[in-house]
Write a structure and sequence with these properties.
By secondary structure, the chain is mostly helical. It contains five helices and no strands. Helix 1 crosses helix 3, helix 1 packs parallel to helix 4 and helix 2 crosses helix 3.
């Protein structure tokens, strides 16, 4: 199963953004290396995930595995089939 860092990287790449761009836009800016490290090991705090979702313009649910989303009440799939 993909961890949250991988899902964040996928969303970032879909938007065409670099790790440096997202890291710089965070309230407490972090370096490209620090952001990439968080993506590699999935070590984002809840607040950081919220912030990254806002920066990328996606719902936080986007970063959750599909099977987790099915169990959320009133949930729509943020990963629609293409």
């Amino acid at each position: 199963m993909d961890h949250i860092g991988i899902r964040i990287r996928e969303a970032r790449r879909e938007k065409g953004w670099s790790a440096e761009m997202v890291g710089r836009k965070m309230k407490k800016a972090i370096s490209k290396q620090a952001f990439a490290q968080k993506e590699r090991n999935g070590s984002f705090s809840y607040q950081e995930v919220e912030e990254v979702a806002e920066i990328l313009g996606v719902n936080m649910k986007y970063f959750l595995p599909k099977r987790s989303i099915k169990n959320l009440p009133n949930s729509t799939d943020p990963h629609p089939a293409a």
